[in-house]
Design goal:
With 325 residues, this protein is of the alpha/beta class. 32% of the residues lie in helices and 29% in strands. A six-stranded mixed sheet has the order 8-9-10-5-11-12, with helices on both faces. Strands 4-3-6-7 form a four-stranded antiparallel sheet, with helices on one face. α3 packs across α4, α5 runs parallel beside α6 and α8 packs across α10. The longest helix has 16 residues. It is elongated, with a radius of gyration of 23 Å. The two termini are 43 Å apart. Bound molecules: adenosine-5'-triphosphate (ATP). Keywords: Antibiotic resistance, ATP-binding, Nucleotide-binding, Transport. One of its GO terms (cellular component) is plasma membrane. Its main location: membrane.
Length: 325
């Protein structure tokens, strides 16, 4: 049953090979009010065994990018190679090597949790006995053993998401893609899903996911591309991205009224209602300056908080804009 063997990790000249490569990827959707350029020329390179995040605010082009990487969306221009196969010319070869957990519920609603896993394994060519074994393995691995007889509507949001991930893994895909795996589930279940993904990564699984949650990306992804307006702003190890913010902290200051008319001089501020956010490496004297600027404008400074250098400060430094999920 070749489809259920653990795929070998491709190695080129002693170095782990790229398993996902996107070159000049672009997507323009036709729309009534004129074409929408969702992805405006993206290059990506993911190596075997990586835990890679496509991070960006809503509408940045993440889902479209993952759609093109997984053969579901046809690129307007550019190319995708998966494990050495061209996604446009060899889509079947590509689909055999990948699995996608999409944002929408893709489980079979007529079947129990266990049946979903068994039928999926059979679909990929497993014998009845192999399907039973694989289902048992996955139920145990994903903490769903006591839910094996449940229908999808009897599962919590987190259990359903874990089951969708388990179902995507029956054939042991070389690359697991996930589109917003923690969207719409409660905080506790979110951590649970990230834990599951962390364990998969530790076992050698290549994972590529999209997320708009900048804190979760910072905590869990090893390498990330920050996407905005259909372009990759930066792509690097998460720790390097944070370091590239140059020790910059994000200071949030809240006044007793709107700050839209306030003059902050040369301070690079992002205004939001009664608050401003400043990304700066020079915090000395900043509070006194903010108090004084407030007094000049007839505003009282109510609160100041400082967040350590993070992916969020890297985003602010890169774009001059606060990150809005
Ligand atoms: N089928 C479509 N037809 C027209 N425009 C589309 C289509 N799909 C996406 N778009 C537009 O393309 C842009 C990128 O959307 P995409 O869903 O790829 O972004 P995203 O980063 O995944 O955001 P979200 O997290 O909100 O889904 C958005 O402006 C969106 O409105």
């Amino acid at each position: 049953m070749a489809g259920l063997r653990t795929p070998a990790r491709p190695v080129v000249a002693g170095r782990t090979a790229s398993v996902v490569t996107a070159t000049g990827l672009r997507k323009v959707y036709p729309a009534k009010r004129g074409p929408v350029e969702a992805v405006a020329g993206i290059d990506l390179d993911v190596r075997a065994g990586e835990f890679f995040g496509l991070l960006g605010p809503n509408g940045a082009g993440k889902s479209t990018t993952i759609g093109m990487l997984t053969t579901l969306v046809r690129p307007t221009a550019g190319s995708v190679r998966i494990a050495g196969f061209d996604a446009a010319r060899e889509p079947v070869q590509v689909r055999r090597r990948i699995s996608l957990v999409s944002q929408t519920n893709s489980v079979d609603r007529e079947l129990t949790v266990e049946e979903n896993l068994r039928y999926r394994t059979r679909y990929w060519g497993g014998t009845r006995a192999a399907a039973r074994r694989r289902a048992d393995e996955l139920l145990e691995q994903f903490g769903l053993g006591d839910r094996r007889g449940a229908m999808f509507y009897q599962l919590s949001g987190g259990q359903l998401r874990r089951m969708m991930i388990a179902r995507a893994l029956v054939q042991r895909p070389e690359i697991l893609f996930l589109d917003e795996p923690t969207a719409g589930i409660d905080p506790h279940s979110r951590v649970n899903v990230w834990d599951v993904l962390g364990e998969l990564h530790a076992s050698g699984q290549t994972i590529v996911l999209t997320t708009h949650n900048i804190e979760e990306a910072e905590r869990f992804c090893r390498r990330a591309a920050i996407i905005d307006g259909g372009r990759v702003l930066v792509c690097d190890e998460v720790s390097s991205l944070i370091a590239s913010a140059g020790g910059v902290s994000v200071v949030t200051a809240t006044y007793d009224g709107p700050v839209s008319e306030m003059d902050f001089g040369a301070l690079p501020v992002v205004r939001d209602g009664a608050s401003i956010r400043v990304s700066t490496a020079a915090t000395d004297g900043l509070i006194a300056e903010l108090v004084s600027l407030g007094t000049t404008a007839g505003r009282r400074l109510l609160d100041v908080s400082t967040a350590r250098p993070s992916l969020e400060s890297a985003f602010l430094t890169l774009t001059g804009r606060a990150y809005r999920a």
